[in-house]
Every structure is written in C-alpha cells, then in structure tokens.
C-alpha cells in the first residue's frame, strides 16, 4: 500500500463516524418533524408510553393513507357533482330552445293573460 492510499484509508476511517452521526441526526430531526406534524389525535393513542421512531413512522403512514383516501373521495364527489351540474345545465338549455318548450310557454302565458276567451263572471 502506498502512502497516498494509506492516507486515504485513514481519512476515510476518521470521517466515517462523523458522516454516520450526521446521518442519524438528520433522521432523528425528520422523525421529530413528522411527530410535530401529526395531529394530537394520533399522538394521544400512545399517551402512557414514549413513542418510538417506528411508532411515529407507522402513524405517519396511517395519517397519509387517510389523507389520500379523503382526497380521492372528494375528487369522486366533485366529478359526480360536476356531471350532475353539467347534465342539469344541458337539460335547461334544451328546454329553453325546444319547440315543445315554446308551445308550453305560450299556452301558459295565454292562460295568464287578462283577456281570455270567456268573460269573467263573479257569480
């Protein structure tokens, strides 16, 4: 082994624990952030015991799954609502321009007109 290779190996051995420590700190920080993002209803499930990292990760997965399901349900409802709305608007447009509609409209307005074919008699 040459001096340069030996120096690299020593440098790597000295740096590895530091890099590993930084990695663990990042993981712990992210788990703490997840814990703070979880609602109190999730955190209260384990009120008597200290939450382990695995518990926090599992709760986060459960929470995210619920959010995704709610989002999908809302999208389905909105699609259904939009279909109903466009169908209703289409039926209204058809009714406004159909010949039957104008016939019905004119017969209704004739019935409501002050002048009718038979004279009005109060008795």
Automatic annotation (TrEMBL):
GO BP term, example:
neuronal stem cell population maintenance
**Disordered as annotated region, ranges:** 84-123
Q: Where in the cell is it found?
A: Nucleus
Q: Does the keyword Transferase apply?
A: no
Checking InterPro entries in the record gives:
bHLH_dom (IPR011598), HES_HEY (IPR050370), HLH_DNA-bd_sf (IPR036638)
- State any GO CC term: nucleus
| Alphabetical UniProt keywords | Developmental protein, Differentiation, DNA-binding, Neurogenesis, Nucleus, Repressor, Transcription, Transcription regulation
Record-annotated BHLH domain positions = 11-67
Molecular-function annotations in GO: DNA binding; protein dimerization activity
The answer, when asked if Nucleotide-binding is one of the entry's keywords, is: no
The entry's function note states:
Transcriptional repressor of genes that require a bHLH protein for their transcription. Plays an important role as neurogenesis negative regulator.
Q: How does it assemble?
A: Transcription repression requires formation of a complex with a corepressor protein of the Groucho/TLE family.
* Name the record gives this protein: Transcription factor HES-5
Where does this protein come from, organism-wise?
Pleuronectes platessa
């Amino acid at each position: 082994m040459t001096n340069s290779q030996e120096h690299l190996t020593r440098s790597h051995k000295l740096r590895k624990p530091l890099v590993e420590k930084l990695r663990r700190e990042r993981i712990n920080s992210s788990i703490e952030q997840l814990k703070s993002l979880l609602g109190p209803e999730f955190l209260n499930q384990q009120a008597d015991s200290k939450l382990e990292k695995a518990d926090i990760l599992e709760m986060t997965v459960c929470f995210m799954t619920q959010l995704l399901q709610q989002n999908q349900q809302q999208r389905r409802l909105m699609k259904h609502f939009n279909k109903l709305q466009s169908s209703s608007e289409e039926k209204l447009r058809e009714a406004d321009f159909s010949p039957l509609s104008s016939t019905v409209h004119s017969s209704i307005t004739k019935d409501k007109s002050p002048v009718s074919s038979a004279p009005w008699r109060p008795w």
